[in-house]
Amino acid sequence: MAEVVKKSIDQATIEMIAKAKTDECNIVFDRAETTKACPIGAEGSCCSMCAMGPCRVPLPRGKEETPEDKKKRRGVCGATAETIAARNFVRKIAAGTAAHSDHGRRVVSAFLDLAKGKTPGYQIKDEQKLLQLALDMGIKIGDRSNEEIAIELGETLIREFGKQEGELAFLKRAPLKRQELWRKLGVAPRGIDREVVEAMHRTHMGVDQDYQSLLLQGSRTALADGWGGSMIATDLQDIMFGTPSPVASQINLGVLKEDEVNVIIHGHEPQLAEMLAVMSRDPEIVAYAKSKGAKGVNLAGMCCTANEVLMRHGIPIAGNFLQQELSIVTGALEAMVVDVQCIMQSLVSVAQCYHTKIITTDPRAKMEGAMHIEFDDHHAAEGAKAILRVAIDNFPNRKKNVYIPPQKTDLIAGFSHETINYLLGGLFRASYRPLNDNIINGRIRGVAGVVGCSNARVTHDEVQLTMVKELIKNDVLVLQTGCAAMASAKAGLMVPEAASQYAGEGLASVCEAVGIPPVLHMGACIDNSRILIAATAMVKDGGLGDDISDLPVAGAAPEWMSEKAIAIGQYFVASGVFTVFGVTWPTMGSKEVTNYMFKDFEKIYGGMWAFEPDPIKAAQLMIAHIDKKRKALGIDKSRERVLYDMTMRRQLEGA
Ligand code: SF4
Ligand code: MSK
After folding, report:
1. Percent residues over pLDDT 90 in the chain
2. The pTM is what?
3. 3-state DSSP of 172-223
């Protein structure tokens, strides 16, 4: 058991790892032991951009690199270790940006179909956000119908992907100073697809061979993700499915039910998940489930799809990235329905140990051995029902080895930018002013975004949780998305009561007055764009400088694994945020490139990267950065404390 404990600190996960062993089912935690990470690839020193390679140019082991060693560290074409490390890094950014942005493109196309009346199952849920976004984009409202406005908005936004000149429209949402800096540096993205294609071109054999120039294109590509593809996806999803507001739910494998048909939705895009959420309660589907001996259909989420349907429907979450196989290991999962991103290919072989059906639904993401039921937005209800019937038909096939671990934890999610604005300022004076005031008076020391994945190379959930606890203990308000948010939620940090238990005195007093947890769930990976908007709102509300880089804020992805995390990190850095990653750092093979990103970037962007696998040390780096910014703003000494309690907020609203 001791050996199992090291793999995770989450009890449900620990129990399921042990069950997988008993059931002789090979899972990710086993493969992480048998398949060692390649140290040369991990440090970014392997180039496979042409057939004269792959060329490996690792740092010398066990000794300091001499100038002579450095000269020898070249590929067959002469590419230096610097060029190779930077090229590999920029390709990760391009892949991450492509993933988020292809998601965004699919959302725009669903939005256009909705506006044209081609998808009867969906409606415009947030009219106010539609009109606001249309105004932001310069679209005439007048007496036009919502549908007419939506068509023009969708057509305008779809052009953002293929635009060749100019700059992305959403860049205008950033603080003015930041926009000017991007223009001066030449990193303001022109079109989303254009930046990804140019990044792939410039990293091809024999093109851009100056690491600083390569990294500029890395920034431009990443900004096309954060202020482009991801932001478009978040905004249109809110319009179609509703802007999240606080919602209570539960998380962990204990949300699966012994007497119901369990269906997990896993992946990233919410269209299908939304329809499954509705159809799982359909009387015809419930009756069909009962006809097979189950009490009903129990829908739960996994990874970022889970965050999407949690935020809008309160659907419970079964777990984060490293728990996807384990939900099958319970023996109680009838179907896992997947779309795109973060879906382990091993799901099919794990399912063979039990009775689970793996159902792929997206033409871009098929899996050998899985059942494919292609989801079509135009016939969404029928598609969702067909999938649910497959799951229900599978209920009688459960084997004897069913065990659902009891762990499940309460959480509150749904802290969109709009919700935070309202909670802090009240309905009539929605604003970040009270947050800024509490930062200025020192009750809140700063704000940290802790995001990203779980990674089988470190103890599951431990790194995130240790970091988040250290931050809130030191009065840093934590905003979270993705699988990192789930680690905190499982540990009980996402309920208002966590404030008095885990947060420092100042942060706890603000959380108690407003009635919020000290760790706020802001959504899925693409919703990191909400954090950019929140940071911009803090700048615009005044008192904390005139750019994101002036704010006492920091970012982290302590258990990252996906290329999307690198794209996210780079757009945070290029937006002026100090960002710390854990686990491993993919340019370690070049000290020059790494130093450039860890030091010189600050002079260029006002934000920079850092790598620190120890979560306490990483949190302390973030706190030191926050304190540095507080000092620069002249708010390092606590001022008179103005706390907006409920009474004061009511007075404000009534004024
Ligand atoms: Fe080797 Fe150069 Fe080809 Fe890369 S591009 S594989 S360094 S020869
Ligand atoms: S799902 S990208 S493991 S956060 Fe977005 Fe989780 Fe990372 Fe996938």
Report:
1. 88
2. 0.95
3. HHCCHHHHHHHHHHCCCCCCHHHHHHHHHHHCCCCCCCCHHHHHHHHHHHHH
644: Cβ contacts below 8 Å, ≥ 6 apart:
424, 434, 437, 438, 513, 514, 652
CATH code, 81-241: 1.20.1270.30
pLDDT digits (tens, 9 = 90+) for 140-155: 999 999 999 999 999 9
Residue nearest ligand 1's atom 2 by CA = 77
Residue to probe by mutation, ligand 1, list 46, 47, 57, most atoms within 8 Å of CB = 47
Residue 267 tokens, joined: 């992946």
Is pLDDT of 261 > 80?
yes
As a whole number of Å, the CA-based R_g of the chain is: 24
Ligand 1 pocket, 207 CB below 6 A?
A: no
Domains 81-241 and 247-397 share a fold: no
CA 464 to ligand 2 centroid distance, Å: 14
Kindly report the CATH class assigned to 247-397: alpha beta
Domain segments of the chain: what residues?
2-70, 81-241, 247-397, 415-633
Q: How many CB atoms lie within 10 A of CB 652?
A: 17
49 CA distance to ligand 1 middle (Å): 6
Query: What CATH topology corresponds to 415-633?
Result: Rossmann fold (3.40.50)
